[in-house]
């Protein structure tokens, strides 16, 4: 048994990772300020974890939480492209300054850092699939903040000999993903509206596509990144996805079949900062982590719907 710190452990990805680690018999510390994370995401495991309410920009809090841990899974961030377009300074402060604080705590305590990077780093680059060697082209403050954090991961690995890993997530979905609010991701927002008998909203023509990755694949990728030899942990980005592309219109078609409903979307103007197409090359993840996606879109969507049916009433 080992001890792990999960920053942002009350969020969608973080809370699923916490359960993944507990299922492996590990000890887990969670640090979350609940700005976007939810206490109910951890309610059923509250007695099995050490939960600290605090901010990743508080160096002393991060150091205390990391004490005795071998790895920090750094999931905490202020997410959402639209939110970053409205308030870029807040996004920078939480994501970049928070990540720098986590790295400083890890440097003092000797922890490995596995960082939640983002496919938004590729921006609107026309090349497909996206390969990590491509020059980042962020087109939103959120994407810029994540690219900045990747740079710090590489810099700390090079300058201080730290083991750091940047996992570039591609459109993660699954249980506990928030379907509410202005910044809800596409899949939970679609499902919630359809379950309420409402029209799903699509910004654009619906032909924009993503490499959707089920949360279970992401949790396993994080675990693999925590276990590989330190020589593989130089901070360079690693795509985590399925290597398959699905359009928003295809999602709605599949949801209609799974929910047995007629689907007619409400098409709205495109949003600034949104990327048209995103597909990952996952060769580096295979080579460096031994990663293979185990759950693909159709099965993952069915699992997500089961959870939403049970939890959205």
Q: How would you describe this protein?
A:
With 313 residues, this protein is of the alpha/beta class. It has a domain of 215 residues: Rossmann fold. It has ten helices and 13 strands. Strands 3-2-1-4-5-6-11 form a seven-stranded parallel sheet, sandwiched between helices. The protein has a two-stranded parallel sheet with strand order 7-10. β5, α5 and β6 form a beta-alpha-beta unit. It is globular and about 55 Å long.
Keywords:
313 residues, alpha/beta, Rossmann fold, seven-stranded parallel beta sheet, two-stranded parallel ribbon, 40% helix, 17% strand, globular
Chart the SSEs and their pairings.
Blueprint: E1 3-7, H1 12-23, E2 27-32, E3 50-53, H2 59-66, E4 71-74, H3 81-86, H4 88-109, E5 112-118, H5 141-160, E6 164-169, E7 172-173, H6 186-195, E8 201-203, E9 209-210, E10 213-214, H7 215-227, E11 234-240, E12 246-247, H8 248-259, E13 266-268, H9 283-289, H10 297-311
Parallel strand pairs: 1-2, 1-4, 2-3, 4-5, 5-6, 6-11, 7-10, 8-13
Antiparallel strand pairs: 9-12
Helix pairs in contact: 1-7, 2-4, 4-5, 6-8, 6-10, 8-10
Give the C-level CATH assignment of the domain at 3-173 and 215-243 and 280-294. Alpha Beta
The proportion of residues in beta strands is: 15-25%
CATH level-four homologous superfamily name of the domain at 3-173 and 215-243 and 280-294? NAD(P)-binding Rossmann-like Domain
Rg of Cα set: 18 Å
**Strand order in the sheet with the most strands:** 3-2-1-4-5-6-11
Question: Can you count the helices?
Answer: 10
User: What is the subunit arrangement here?
Assistant: single chain
Please tell me what the overall shape is. globular
Number of strands: 13
Task: Give helix % range.
Answer: 25-40%
- Taken in chain order, the helices and strands follow as EHEEHEHHEHEEHEEEHEEHEHH
**From the coordinates shown, what is the CATH architecture of the domain at 3-173 and 215-243 and 280-294?**
3-Layer(aba) Sandwich
Low-confidence stretches: none
Examine the coordinates and then state which fold CATH places here, giving the name of the CATH topology of the domain at 3-173 and 215-243 and 280-294.
Rossmann fold
Largest sheet: 7 strands, parallel
Mean pLDDT: 94
């Amino acid at each position: 048994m080992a001890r792990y710190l999960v920053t942002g452990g009350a969020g969608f990805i973080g809370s699923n990772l916490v359960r993944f680690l507990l299922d492996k018999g590990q000890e887990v510390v969670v640090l979350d300020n609940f700005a976007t994370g939810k206490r109910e995401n951890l309610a059923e495991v509250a007695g099995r974890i050490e939960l600290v309410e605090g901010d990743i920009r508080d160096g002393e809090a991060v150091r205390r939480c990391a004490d005795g841990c071998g790895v920090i899974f750094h999931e905490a961030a202020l997410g959402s492209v639209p939110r970053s377009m409205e308030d870029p300074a807040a996004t920078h402060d939480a994501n970049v300054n928070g990540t720098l604080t986590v790295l400083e705590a890890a440097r003092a305590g000797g922890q490995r850092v596995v960082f939640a990077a983002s496919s938004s780093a590729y921006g609107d680059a026309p090349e497909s699939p996206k390969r990590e060697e491509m020059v980042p082209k962020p087109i939103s403050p959120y994407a810029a903040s994540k690219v900045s954090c990747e740079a710090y991961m590489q810099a700390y690995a090079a300058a201080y000999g730290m083991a750091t890993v940047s996992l570039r997530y591609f459109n993660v979905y699954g249980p506990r993903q928030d379907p509410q609010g202005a910044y809800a991701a596409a899949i939970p927002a679609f499902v919630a509206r359809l379950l309420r008998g409402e029209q799903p909203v699509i910004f654009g023509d619906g032909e924009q596509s993503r490499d959707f990755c089920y949360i279970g694949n992401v949790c396993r990728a994080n675990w693999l990144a925590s276990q590989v030899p330190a020589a593989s942990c130089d901070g360079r980005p690693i795509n985590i996805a399925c290597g398959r592309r699905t359009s928003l219109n295809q999602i709605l078609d599949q949801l209609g079949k799974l929910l047995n409903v007629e689907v007619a979307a409400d098409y709205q103007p495109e949003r600034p900062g949104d990327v048209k197409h995103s597909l990952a090359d996952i060769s580096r993840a295979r080579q460096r982590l031994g990663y293979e996606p185990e759950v693909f879109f159709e099965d993952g969507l069915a699992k997500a719907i089961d959870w939403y049916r049970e939890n959205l009433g």
